[in-house]
Amino acid sequence: MRTYLDFEKKIAELESKVSELKSIAGAEADEDETTSAVSIDDEIRTLEEKARKALSDTYSNLTPWQKCQVARHPDRPHCMAYVNAMITDFVPLAGDRYYSDDDAIVGGIGRFRGRSVVILGHEKGNTTESRIKHNFGMARPEGYRKAVRLMEMAERFQMPIITFIDTAGAFPGVGAEERGQAEAIARSTDKCLSLTVPIITLVIGEGGSGGALAIATANKVLMLEHSIYTVASPEAAASILWHDSTRAKDAATNMRITAQDLDELGIIDGIITEPIGGAHRNPETMINHAANVIEKRLTDLEDMAPAEIRRQRQQKFLDIGKSLH
After folding, report:
1. Pairing mode, if any, of strands 105-112 and 88-92?
2. Is 167 exposed, middle or buried (0-12, 13-18, 19+ CB in 10 A)?
3. CB-CB contact of 233 with 283 (8 Å)
4. Non-local CB neighbours of 13 within 8 Å, separated by 6+ positions
5. What pLDDT is recorded for position 39?
6. DSSP H helical segments within the chain, as ranges?
7. How many angstroms separate the Cα of 66 from the Cα of each of 56, 60, 164, 234, 286?
8. What pLDDT shows up at residue 192?
9. Which of 86, 91, 116, 316 is most buried, taking the most CB atoms under 10 A from its CB?
10. What is the DSSP string of 255-296?
11. Number of neighbouring beta carbons within 10 Å of residue 231
């Protein structure tokens, strides 16, 4: 059953009516009531066209807060959906070799269209059980230390790195802070900057704060059309600025967190178009399109010398600070 967001009420009503009429048409077809069935088919086509237009009109004019809702849609494809569809011979690797494993960040090695690559990404899960297992994509220090371990492996064997970003932020629990959350994030970010292998990052949902940046300090940072990337969630920002988390809509509007805003500011390197209605409407098409863009960006980087790859990445982030000064 499809999940509708609060601003999709008109779309939901039209698609629900289409489903009802299709059920009636199917029942009448079984009874061979040809004339009535033809009439219903005409009505179905009319309503389907209205639903398509409503969907297109709605998604071509989303507000920042609505984009935030789409980025968090429960049916949106998460990290492992991309990995399973894009990566062959994937071998997951676990543990930070210091404390334990963290399921909020998944990682491993595999092959992407003929290339051996290292994969890292935030996994939110798609059922109640899996969301709890993956801690809703909010990593603890051991997750970032695992990421550093896999980055070092990528450097040792000269394998490109592809990262998928989808987190509200690093886990803020007491235990995480006691085990050095800030230090782990900083070391992961620093490791990204020091590597001589290409790093491609794709923000597939939420890119929240340092929890996202820790594995997103890449040569090329790409965002899906309806994803968000922000220094703090709209709810957290509203709490800080106005001491009122219910003003998250105002925060989202003013923080410039959408892919379109960040592309205009020069913070990201490209926007990947989503199917009409969002990635969750057609995950297969979305993932294939993303894979094509990632392949092109990797090919562009392959002609660069290792030292130049590192220099380009470092300069990219220095230039962000200059351009926003």
Report:
1. antiparallel
2. buried
3. no
4. none
5. 74
6. 9-30, 34-59, 64-71, 79-86, 128-133, 141-156, 174-178, 181-194, 209-213, 234-242, 248-255, 259-265, 283-302, 306-323
7. 14, 11, 22, 12, 19
8. 97
9. 86
10. HT-BHHHHHHHTSSSEEEPPPTT-GGG-HHHHHHHHHHHHHH
11. 15
Both tokens of 313, joined, read 């990445």
- In this structure, the number of other CB atoms found within 10 A of the CB of residue 57 comes to 12
Residue among 190, 192, 98 nearest 140 (CA): 98
How do strand 220-224 and strand 199-208 relate by DSSP bridges? parallel
Identity (one letter) of the amino acid at 110?
G
- Is the pLDDT at 117 greater than 80? The verdict is yes
User: What does R_g of the chain's alpha carbons equal in angstroms?
Assistant: 22
Reported as a pLDDT band with limits 50, 70 and 90, residue 65 is very high
Three-state DSSP state, 88: strand
- Joined together, the tokens standing for residue 52 give 């398509």
At what angle are helices 248-255 and 234-242 packed, to 10 degrees? 100
Tokens of 294: 């990632």
| Confidence band for 48, pLDDT divided at 50, 70 and 90 | confident
Mean pLDDT of the chain: 92
Angle, CA 179 vertex, CA 176 and CA 183 arms, to 5°: 95
Cα distance between residue 234 and residue 257, in whole Å: 9
Q: What is the pLDDT of residues 233-242, one digit of tens each?
A: 899 899 999 9
What token pair was written down for 143? 């997750």
Residue written as token pair 């909010």:
138
Write the pLDDT tens digit of every residue in 169-201. 999 999 999 999 999 999 999 999 999 999 999
